[in-house]
Amino acid sequence: MSSFIITGIVADGAGRAFSGFLDLQFRPARLISDYIYERGIGASLINAAAVGITGLILILIAKVQLSGATFAALFTMMGFALFGKTPVNILPIIFGVYLAGKLVGKTFSEYLIIALFGTALGPLVSMVTVELGLTGLSAVAVGTCAGIATGFILPAIAVSVLHFHQGYSLYNLGLSCGFFALFAAALFRAGGYTFEGLMLWHTGNSAILIFMVPLLSVILILTGLFSGGKKGLRDLAAIQKHTGRLPSDFMDLESMEGALINSGLIGLIGSAYILLIGGDFNGPTIGGLLTIMGFGAFGTHLKNSWPVVIGVIAASLVFGKSLTAPGVLLAVIFCTTLAPLAGAFGIFTGLIAGFIHLVLVHQTGSWQGGMNLYNNGFAGGLTATLIVSVIAWYRSRNSDFK
Amino acid sequence: MKRKDLILHLIGEISNFLLESDPRRLVISLHQEENGLHLCVLDENPHTDEEIKKIDLALNSRKRPELAGYYGSMTGHDMLGASRLNLLGWQVKHCDVSSIGSGIKIDIWLGGEHFQNDQFTIPKKDTE
User: Fold this and answer.
1) Best mutation target, B66, B71, B79, B87, to test chain A (most A CBs within 10 A)
2) Do B81 and A109 count as a contact with CB atoms less than 8 A apart?
3) Which residues of chain A does B13 touch, with a Cβ-Cβ cutoff of 8 Å?
């Protein structure tokens, strides 16, 4: 986090970076709002660090040890703080989750993961605050209340929709937030609001943006290798044998060293892919890479990911979509939410899942008004639900009693 | 969660695990007190020492409230795919896994904040 702040200051100077960071707190944040496009690299990196620090403080308050789940949550929060999350728009949601826990007698630690990932609906708070035409303190008050109400209902949805796909989509809060955002978007539309599509997408790669993730990946790999030696490599091999189904905490199931090497490899390969196809390194794509690196400790590995990625690429080629188009590029990165399907049911299932995912993800963003940042998690959850339903149905054929 | 639902889900997950090896017999015994319960499950399939060690490790993994409170809701509920004993392990007070000659015996103790060891046969030093 400190390296994000230092890099941000080096990139844009302290004054511009911090004033840009403050501006971002009250900007529209719906998909796709690339903060690097809006306020530059410095402001975006400081925002990412601030969101990461917020997450870390919550983990400390909840007295939860750093693990695969919290590692994934922190990387995801910081990644999405490059295009949608800010400390201001996530705090009301976190408080809402805390209140929901109080109501049903759960400790905050039991709902910590929901609180951290539930910040995907930060843009809903920003939208109510700055896009509905409200002004001054009333805008902030209404936006905050909307965020608290959102957070309050999230645990109920998150636990329920987990059963839809039975843990075969890693970004379960993506499906939960998408489900909630459907209703919220319908409510806003009923009130006469029209969602204007946003496409703020930084182009023109700079050295900082290109090398940020590879450098971080190398650091993770070296940390894993030096602290674990051969054990790290052995555990990396063992990680590849897990299905990745939720909750697969690779730090617990194997080791922290193996999980760090796995995360680093995922980051390197993801970056190499973007470089290879000539894609843009910007807020959304770097955020995506950070997310899949985080999930490298919590369900994603190379063996269970590649079939799904190939499925997405195949679908984009079949339907004549450019691999560098924002929607396709993000789908290739985030489709790894479906990796457990390939891990559990094989390569063919993974390929089909990836193919369906790309088709669906192009629709789901407009359904939910771009308020749910985990749009790929939403589409992935629906795709996994479809595939799991078919597999479960097929297995319900006649029992094998003679 | 209502106690009855919780017991059903616990039995579902542990039975799912043992039924994967298709035992001829599976015995489930439940002892309930006001603040806790003891579930004992026995099968008559042979299990290697390594297998028993793995089961013990999964059931006696460190407590993970952040995972138990959320993903724990899948215990004994979502059973497409392999069973997941760690979902159980995060939620229980104590587990014992032992070989009983012809099969395996799994003892699981579960309870609330006022769980009283002396009402059960649980070893006192191992409880939280």
Assistant:
1) B66
2) no
3) none
A112-164: per-residue pLDDT in tens? 999 999 999 999 999 999 999 999 999 999 999 999 999 999 999 999 999 99
- Please give the C-alpha separations between residue A109 and each of A97, A160, B66, B87, in angstroms, as whole numbers: 11, 19, 5, 16
Complete DSSP assignment for chain B: --HHHHHHHHHHHHHHHHHTT--S-EEEEEEEETTEEEEEEEE-S---HHHHHHHHHHHTPPP-HHHHTTGGGGTTT--SSS--HHHHHTT-SEEEEEE-SSSEEEEEEEE-TT--GGGS---GGG--
Contact between residue A185 and residue A367 where contact means Cβ atoms under 8 Å apart? yes
Kindly report, residue by residue over B80-124, the tens digit of the pLDDT. Answer: 888 888 888 888 888 889 988 889 999 998 887 666 666 566 655
The residue count for chain A: 402
The structure tokens listed for A180 are: 């909630």
Q: List, as own/partner pairs, every contact residues B3-8 make where C-beta atoms lie below 8 angstroms and the sequence separation is at least 24, other chains included.
A: B3/B32, B3/B37, B6/B110, B7/B37, B7/B39, B8/B76
How far, in Å, CA of A314 to CA of A401, rounded? 41
Amino acid letter, residue B46: P
Q: Note whether B71 contacts A: Cβ–Cβ < 8 A.
A: yes
What region does B27 belong to: left with phi over 0, alpha with psi -120 to 50, or beta? beta
Question: Whole-angstrom distance between the N-terminal and C-terminal Cα of chain A?
Answer: 62
CA dist., res. A343 & res. A64, Å (int): 28
Name chain B contacts of A107, Cβ cutoff 8 Å.
65, 69
Q: Does B22 touch chain A (CB under 8 A)?
A: no
Cβ of B81 under 8 Å from any chain A Cβ? yes
The Cα B63–Cα A44 span in angstroms is: 36
The Cα–Cα gap between A332 and A357 comes to 10
Do A97 and A111 contact (CB within 8 A), yes or no?
yes
Q: Residue A400 carries which side chain, given as an amino acid letter? A: D
Dihedral Cα A168, A174, A176, A179, nearest 10 deg: -110
For chain A, say whether B5 makes contact (Cβ under 8 Å): no
* DSSP β-bridge partners for residue B99: B104
Q: Does B80 touch chain A (CB under 8 A)?
A: yes
Nearest one of A332, A328, A41, A52 to A212, comparing CA atoms: A41
